[in-house]
Amino acid sequence: MGRPHKPLLDRVRITTTALELVDEQGDFSVPQIARRLGVQTASVYHHVDGRDGIVELLRERICAAIDGGTLDGKPWDAAVAAWARSYRAAFAAHPKAIPLLTTSPVRAPRVLEQYEKAVALLIDAGFALPDVMPAIIALENLVLGSALDMAAPEAMWELADDTATPRLARALAAFPEGGRTDTAFELALAGYLTHVRGMPDGV
């Protein structure tokens, strides 16, 4: 019998299956991956460095959709804004992965390369070294929070009786339909950039 044209198991298939499980249920287990691929659990471990290794493969897969080239742009604040929008879009496609990835250290080399570029961008722009990581972490908090918000219903407030909360009812009625998350994200991003521009040694 000839050998199969494609391997029955590889890191790409493992990552794809793990991401499918995370998109469905917010987590995965190695036995679940094995069952879905029709292989033994031990076979999966031959290709990956345990569960932590799969988490990093997931991180690489999702972050591959972030346009790291935006960090090569000028001026720095326009580059950061473009990176933030691309970052948000990548994680908005897989919101259930956010809790999983934010509770484990970043080890994936390709992802660390993007952080390296972000750090270099801010240092080259004149930011003091102690301010660099707080600025990046704050941006991530904004981006990931908004990515989660994109998975929420468009109508987040259901008022049974407008007279009980009349001001809220008027504010909701005045808010344009559609684009709730985009409007809020752009407002928060603008506020973030205004603050960061004023940090010591920032320009």
UniProtKB/TrEMBL annotation:
Record keywords, A-Z: DNA-binding, Transcription, Transcription regulation
Signal peptide (from-to):
none
Q: Which domain of life is it from?
A: Bacteria
> The HTH tetR-type domain covers which part of the protein?
8-66
**From the UniProt annotation, which stretches of this protein bind DNA?**
29-48
Q: Does the keyword DNA-binding apply?
A: yes
The identity of this protein, by name, is TetR/AcrR family transcriptional regulator C-terminal domain-containing protein
> What is the species listed in this Swiss-Prot or TrEMBL entry?
Streptomyces flavochromogenes
Lineage runs: Bacteria, Bacillati, Actinomycetota, Actinomycetes, Kitasatosporales
